[in-house]
Specification:
By secondary structure, the protein is α/β, with parallel strands linked by helices. It has one domain: Rossmann fold, CATH 3.40.50.150. About 35% of the residues lie in helices and about 25% in strands. The protein is built from 8 helices and 8 strands. Strands 1-7-8-6-5-2-3-4 form an 8-stranded mixed β-sheet, with helices on both faces. Helix 4 links the parallel strand 5 and strand 6. It is globular, with a radius of gyration of 18 Å. The two termini are about 15 Å apart.
Length: about 250
């Protein structure tokens, strides 16, 4: 009988993205993973070339958008691929496939996760960090017309220009929830065992209005003590490919 996934909750830190990427690096070091694929990395590969060389990694950076891949620093092995494609062909077989802030932009998550499983050797790991519904900023982002959302984001975060290194892309938030039963079942049906699922409460979108941000911070603290998977803001999940995927 398969072990139950480890489910836990925590507060979102101001460096939540960096915390996750340090966790990916720690897993690579401790597990001995050498064949590593980053999904949807685009212009910003997470692992430095120094880290790749130090740990003698076969590190492949993928993205569906060739323009984003062209923005990446020189020296990375790249592969343009649509991870939702029905005729997906893996660029190799890997010990680890991971993504950061990619899953919320996936229009067809069932194909995405099944194709990620095809990238992995038996027993290989997948790790994903993503924004979740139903945190209010992401509900608003999901409901706003894309053109209006672009205008708002670029006014609030000028570094998110479309032709820059951190462009904004359409977000769908499909299969992007906290650790609900339905979410766990979907990932298992895609060919994985769910090892760990961490829901994070709170965000920092209200920093420009300190009073509202303090309310958000207090609510996040209360939710850690009284968690519900429906109110997470972010989540990360650690998956292992089953020996015989569905």
């Amino acid at each position: 009988m398969a072990a139950a996934p480890r489910i836990r909750y925590a507060r979102t830190t101001r460096d939540w993205h960096g915390d996750y990427l340090r966790g990916v690096q720690e897993f690579i070091v401790t597990s001995g993973a050498r064949r590593v694929c980053e999904l949807g990395a685009g212009a910003n590969p997470a692992l430095t070339l120094e880290f790749v060389a130090e740990h003698e990694l076969e590190y492949v950076v993928t993205d569906a958008d060739p323009v984003e891949l062209q923005k990446a620093p020189a020296g990375y092995e790249q592969f343009q691929v649509d991870l939702c494609a029905r005729d997906f062909e893996p660029p190799g077989i890997f010990d680890l496939a991971f993504s950061a802030s990619v899953a919320e932009h996936i229009a067809e998550p069932s194909f995405f996760h099944r194709n990620v499983a095809r990238l992995l050797d038996e027993g290989g790991r997948a790790m994903h960090l993503f924004s979740t519904l139903y945190a209010l900023p992401f509900v608003v982002n999901r409901l706003l017309p894309e053109r209006l959302g672009d205008v708002i984001v670029q006014r609030l975060f000028r570094f998110r220009a479309r032709d820059g290194m951190h462009a904004k892309f359409p977000a769908y938030y499909r299969w992007c929830r906290g650790p609900t039963r339905a979410q766990l079942e979907r990932l298992e049906e895609a060919g994985f065992r769910v090892d760990e699922y961490v829901g994070l409460f709170g965000h920092f979108y209200y920093d420009s209005v300190p009073l509202i941000q303090r309310v958000e911070d207090r609510a996040a603290g209360w939710l850690v003590d009284h968690p519900t998977p429906w109110l997470t803001s972010y989540a990360f999940v650690v998956l292992t490919k089953r020996a015989q995927p569905y």
